[in-house]
Amino acid sequence: MTAYDRLRFGGPTSRALWVDVPRAEFLTPVAPAWPLRTERLVLRPFVLDDADAFVDAWASEEWTSLLLSRPMNRAEVHAMVRRRTEPGDGEFFGLAVATHDGTVVGDSMLHLQGTGLSEGEIGWTILPEYAGRGYATEAARAVLEMAFVHFGLRRVVANLDARNDRSAALCERLGMRREVDKRGDFWSKGLWTSSYEYALLAEEWRAQQA
Ligand SMILES: CC(C)(COP(=O)(O)OP(=O)(O)OC[C@H]1O[C@@H](n2cnc3c(N)ncnc32)[C@H](O)[C@@H]1OP(=O)(O)O)[C@@H](O)C(=O)NCCC(=O)NCCS
Known about the structure:
Layout: H1 3-9, H2 14-26, E1 36-37, E2 41-45, H3 51-59, H4 61-64, H5 74-85, E3 92-99, E4 104-113, E5 119-126, H6 135-150, E6 155-161, H7 165-173, E7 177-188, E8 191-201, H8 202-209
Parallel strand pairs: 5-6
Antiparallel strand pairs: 1-2, 2-3, 3-4, 4-5, 6-8, 7-8
Helix pairs in contact: 3-5
Bound molecules: coenzyme A (COA).
C-alpha cells in the first residue's frame, strides 16, 4: 500500500508496517565506536579545538561559493563547531576528518533520514590546502561503510549545487548515480541555481565491495 493508497483506503502503508514501526521500536540509532579509521585518515566527533582549522576556508567567498551556507567569520565558525560538540538528536553525525598525525583536513557528515531512519544524506568538505589528494573520497567511503554496515541504511543521497563539479566528480568516484537534476530550484547567494541529487543503494554499494 502506497501513501496515496492510504489516503484512499486508510490504514498504515506497507512500509510503515514492515520498516518504520519495527525500526522505531527496536532500532534507535547508536553511534559506532569512534574514531573511524582509514588508511590515511581518522574520522571523529568534533572538539572545540577543531574550529581554528576551518576559519580561513569559511571566510573564503571562493571556497564557500558552491555551498548552501554563506561565508562565516571566526566567531560564527567557533559557534558552529560548538554546536557540533553538543548532544544532538542522535540522527546527525558531523565528523571532523583528520590525518593520522591529527591535522584536520575537512569534515564529513551523515544525516539519518526517513521515518524509519533507513535513508541518509552524506556531505563533505575538504580544506583548500588538502584538496586533490583523495581525502574526500577516502573519508566518504568510510562514511558510506558506516551508513550501510553500521546503520544498515538502504539508501544514501548527496545533494549539491549543479555547478559544483568537484563534488559531482566525487559522487561519481563513489559510484553514486545522478538521479535528480533539478532546474532552478536552489536559492544560493542571491541567485536561483540548479541542484543535483546523487544516490547509492545498499546493494549497489555491496556490489562495489565484491
Ligand atoms: C567537494 C570537495 C570535497 C572535493 O574535494 P577533492 O579534493 O576534489 O576530492 P578528493 O579529496 O577525493 O581528491 C580527489 C583528487 O585527488 C587526486 N588524488 C591524489 N592523490 C590521491 C590518492 N592517494 N587517492 C585518491 N585520489 C588522489 C585524485 O586523482 C583527484 O584528482 P582530480 O580532482 O584531478 O581528478 C572539495 O572540492 C570541497 O571541499 N569544496 C568546497 C566545499 C564544497 O563544495 N563541499 C561540497 C558541498 S556539496
